[in-house]
Structure formats: structure tokens, C-alpha cells
Amino acid sequence: MKWITYAVLGTLVSTPLTAFSCITGGDEYKQAVTLYQQSKQTKAPSQKAHYLRQASALCESPEIYYDLGKSYIKLSDYDKAMETFGSALDTVDNSDRVLRAKIYGRRAYVNLVMNRIGHALTDKDAAVELYDNASPRWLLKLGKSIDLHPKRQQMSSRDIYISLSAKRSMTNEKGFAPAPTIDIFVTFQYDSDQPDDQGNRQLSSLGKAVADLVDEEIKQILVIGHTDVRGDATYNQTLSERRAATVVSYLASNHSELAARLTSQGKGESDPIYKGDSAEDHQLNRRVAIQLIPK
Asked: Do residues 32 and 24 make contact, with C-beta atoms less than 8 angstroms apart?
């Protein structure tokens, strides 16, 4: 799984040799360009990282930080990779949605390798949003790798809290959509709106996370049901509505402080994450989305 994800990310288009932003001018910029070019001409990750570290000391460029982070991934130095991608996000212009998406995608991969599923999901979803939900192939494959991870299939309350909390922060600071959303794989009994044992455990974790997170700034908690594309569309619409209503009923019964803000809707088969026809695609498209709508 890790190799597949890394291979996909490795197909991202490289930054042109001198196409990077830098507030530094004169000789320091020229030196940074030379070092950046040297990094492009070597295949050894350690030497590449050496050149890029020197270049970043001369020029705080998101493109340089991005390439340096990629080098740290190849060196399996994931802590430094995360730190460097953080510097890339701190310096990139908000209008450069493609580079921001690539940085978030790389961070999602590193978090996946480190088994930080809440963070991996947050970064992957940020990349998807920056691509205006028209994800390129590498991001779809990365997203599937994350979604199939056992800790994603049965998310802990901590990971749910981490993801939704981080998305709320990003909404405030980075201009993302105003209502943070998370997809949860609540499993139900076959052809039913009643959760199975695994689904009940997932609802328990979900309830704890949402109850801990929701405050006076949240006006509404919207629960959205989704089905796969198999079967009759009208039936799937009704089933998605019933399953979303079941989740609302569970959350209201177990966390009465949330009841007044809970509402549900179903989208049936109209909004699949994955367009394929494999068993995995159908499994991942059956989900419940939780959206926190602010005042």
C-alpha cells in the first residue's frame, strides 16, 4: 500500500528549474537558483536535500521547501518532511491552488505512513478541495489508500476530533469552505437502516468526538447519507435518508446537548467519491458525512 501511494505521488510534475518565488534579490537569489538547478541534476536524495537546504537558507521559497520535503520523504525522514512542508505552506501564496494542493497531498502521504490517520484525512481533503473536487489520478489513489486503512475504516474519537478540529482551523485561516465536513464509514446491516456491531462502535466514537468539538459557534450539525450506485436510484435515495436519520437519532439519544442542532438529509447514489465499479469503490461510497455549519 505504501509503495503504491509513493509511486503515485512520484508522478507529480516537477517544478521548472528557476520558477520559484523569492523575496530575496541580487546575489542571494542567483545563488539559490544555482543550488536549485544543482538539486535537479542529481538523483541522490541526500545530495539533493543538501543543495535544497542551502537554497532554502538563501531564499524562503515554497517551491524549494516543497522539493526539499520530497527529498526527506525519499530519505524516510518523515519528521523533517512534515516540518518542511509546513514551511512550504507558510510561504506559498493562497492564490496558487495547485501548489498548495500538491503540498497538502505530500503531507497526507507522510501522515499516512506515520499512521496519523486524522491528519492524513485532513490534508487529503484539503488537497481535494483545492482541486475544486476534480482530483487528479494520483490524489484519488492516495485518497483510497487512506480510506482503506483499518484506522480509517474504524476511526477513533480522537482521530475524528483531530480531523474536524483541524478543518475548522483551516476554514478560519486559509479560506476553505465554511462548513468542515468528514466522511465516516458507518456500516449497516444489509439492506437496512440499522447499524451492525461495527457501525455502532463507529457511532459511539463519532458521538464522543462531535460532542467534545461542538460549541456555541456551531449552528447546525448536518448528517448526510450516501449509498453506492448499485440498485434502484429511488430506493437508494430513500435508504440514504433513513440511514442518516438513524445516525441523528443515535447522536441525539446519546448526546442530548446536540439534539437541537442535528438534522439529516440523504443524497442516495448522487455523490460517489469513487467512480469505479469495484467492490472497494462501492464500499467506500457507502458512508455518512458529518458537516458542522457555523453561525
From this structure: yes
